[in-house]
Automatic annotation (TrEMBL):
<feature type="compositionally biased region" description="Basic residues">
    <location>
        <begin position="128"/>
        <end position="138"/>
    </location>
</feature>
<keyword id="KW-1133">Transmembrane helix</keyword>
<feature type="transmembrane region" description="Helical">
    <location>
        <begin position="192"/>
        <end position="210"/>
    </location>
</feature>
<feature type="region of interest" description="Disordered">
    <location>
        <begin position="1"/>
        <end position="185"/>
    </location>
</feature>
<keyword id="KW-0812">Transmembrane</keyword>
<keyword id="KW-0472">Membrane</keyword>
<feature type="compositionally biased region" description="Basic and acidic residues">
    <location>
        <begin position="23"/>
        <end position="36"/>
    </location>
</feature>
<protein>
    <submittedName>
        <fullName>Uncharacterized protein</fullName>
    </submittedName>
</protein>
<feature type="compositionally biased region" description="Low complexity">
    <location>
        <begin position="101"/>
        <end position="127"/>
    </location>
</feature>
<feature type="compositionally biased region" description="Basic and acidic residues">
    <location>
        <begin position="43"/>
        <end position="93"/>
    </location>
</feature>
<feature type="compositionally biased region" description="Basic residues">
    <location>
        <begin position="1"/>
        <end position="22"/>
    </location>
</feature>
<dbReference type="InterPro" id="IPR043777">
    <property type="entry name" value="DUF5719"/>
</dbReference>
<dbReference type="Pfam" id="PF18986">
    <property type="entry name" value="DUF5719"/>
</dbReference>
<feature type="compositionally biased region" description="Basic and acidic residues">
    <location>
        <begin position="139"/>
        <end position="167"/>
    </location>
</feature>
<feature type="compositionally biased region" description="Low complexity">
    <location>
        <begin position="173"/>
        <end position="185"/>
    </location>
</feature>
Amino acid sequence: MSGKKVRVKKLIKEQRRARKRAIRDQERAATLKAKQDAASARAELKAEEQRQRQERQQTREKQNQERTRQQQERKQEQAQGRERQQEQDRDRPSPSLSPKSGAVTAGAAATSAAAASTTPAQPASTRQTRRERRRRAGRAGDADRSDQRDTGTGPEHDTEPGPEHETQPGPGPDASAASAGRPRGAARARTAAVVVTAGVLATMAGSVALDGLMDGRSHAATSGVGATAALGAASVTASQAGQSFICPPLPGQPDSLTTDGLVEYRDRDSSASSRFSAVLFATDLSGSFSEASWAQLNEQGRINETTLTEASAADEADSREAAAAAAPLSQREAVYTSAADLARPPLLETAATADGSAQAAAALYEYQADAGPVAGLAVGACTAPERSQWFFGPEIAAGSASLLTLANPFDRSATVEISSVDSDGDRGTSGTRSIVVPGETTRSVNIAGLASSGSDLGVQVRSAGAPVTAQLQSSRASGLTGTGVEFLPGMTAPGTEHLMPGVPIPDGVPASGEDDDEESTAPPELWIHVPGDQGATVELQVFGEDGQQVIETPGVFTVNGGEIDAVNLRGLEPGVSDIRVRTDVPAYVGVRSETEEGTDFGWAAPAAPLREGSGTLLPELGETELHLFATGASGSIAYRVLDAEGGFGAEQSLDLSAESASVISAEDLTAAAPEGSQGGPVVIVFADPQLDGEGSVHAMMSTSTDDGQFSLTPVSPLRGAEEYVPVRLLR
């Protein structure tokens, strides 16, 4: 009887599986039909958008032509008006000047010139009228003075004759002119003094105003003579120093790990392989390079140092091109290098550029293994040293290994504190570890020692002394069979806008948690951490091939501050989705996804908006494609591909639709490589997006193998950001 029950249960289970498969097949057929309908609708929409774009272009051209015609008509009218005014000025008679009024007129002209320097210019007709009035007033003044001399009245005759008057000549025309000229010379001197004094006062007032604007208050009334007053805080662009990019080590399981952070790895599987690649762009259009080299770091120091480029300067004949330091990266020369199977963390170092501009360089590390306890695909960007870094989701269950590698490329030590946060908040002293990383060495920390098994964990890395690069490798295994490996993406600062394009959504995820069983595929997870005690309101949007999706997970929800929140994303269409998260306070956000069979997992971190000079190195292991998502506006974006010899292919353009995704496939990358290239594409560089409104474009690089292994890498700027130094101006 018990045997029959077992067979009946097996039969029921098989029937359930058959029903699930039938339902899944029906859903797939319906999804395929919906995709076909959506594709035809998108084609029609694209044609309509093209037609509307052409109509807008024609309308703009007509408007430009109309504006040009109106401007030409206005210019012609203005020219005709000036000609008429000049003819009227020539026809108007000029009054004659008498010899007696010459001195007066000269003085008046000098006075008017001084006044004109401090007053706005008047129209020609107004100036002519005022000159005539001054001339008439000058003639009237001469006549009055002549009458006074003839009648013996006036100031000269009010005094009694004295000795000086006995020897002075009597009043006459020359004496009158001289006496009239002296007061006008003094008037001119006084006018000039007034003008100079006004300029000095204006300068002083401007200084006081600038002081008040920059410092928030004025020191004019309180500062003593010779006192130095601060004009306030400001910042100036600083010359860029050299850059360092440090990669992860070859993933593996630790065999021993000391309290000082010295690690020994177990033997790795023979199928494991890795590759390091780096690119350095010229500092200008003439092909000038800064000094650059790469090496490896271990617990004792640097090893295997290799020169990549030597410092070079532009020739004088190329000085004009050399000055164009802001020229697009896709127009510059570049040097590419790669090396295989490096166990210790590779280090790329570049010296400061000759003109202090930002250096454009990048490095990438990739790993792949088909078997063994650390099987899977992992692609990680080599990063610069930082003071603070955040990581989501290290694997800490049984059979897992999560090692944090701290690398210090500087010649001074760094004291690093590693703290952990789980779903209950900060783990305190039990989840904290401090370690000293000597200069030009590496140290390792086992994250499993910071948390209990099965908890959702986040890790914060802070350094004092020298900044460090933190790389967190995480793998999981079932016995001796690896089920995934990843270089967890590090984040340097929280934000409020988070966009993660191209997140893989596996098939077989139950629509609700009640339908979960051992055979169910794990759903993608949205991880959120809000630093501090303040909670956050989260807005979640998911976009698929047909636009925004309606999902089971709430679109708006709240999370508490200071803890880890992992939210299952259910109801998503299998394939690839673009996920946008907004928070009303700064937060860290990431998305975890894994394959349907559970053989690999990956993490998606928010991607920065694309701009000129954004790009990435392209992995050699697996197949690579780029997923782009345009938010807010439609348009296009151009890109070029670099090959291993340092040559760029022809510029390509990709159309973008608002709130929709676009893909640059592996075939597109190969086709965009230079003609006759032997090594294929190794770097992609983007231009500024051309959008028809306010918006941005984000990109995620997805690398996968035929066995379903995958890894996600956000596309970021290749050129370093400008740095600013705070200054305080003094007067």
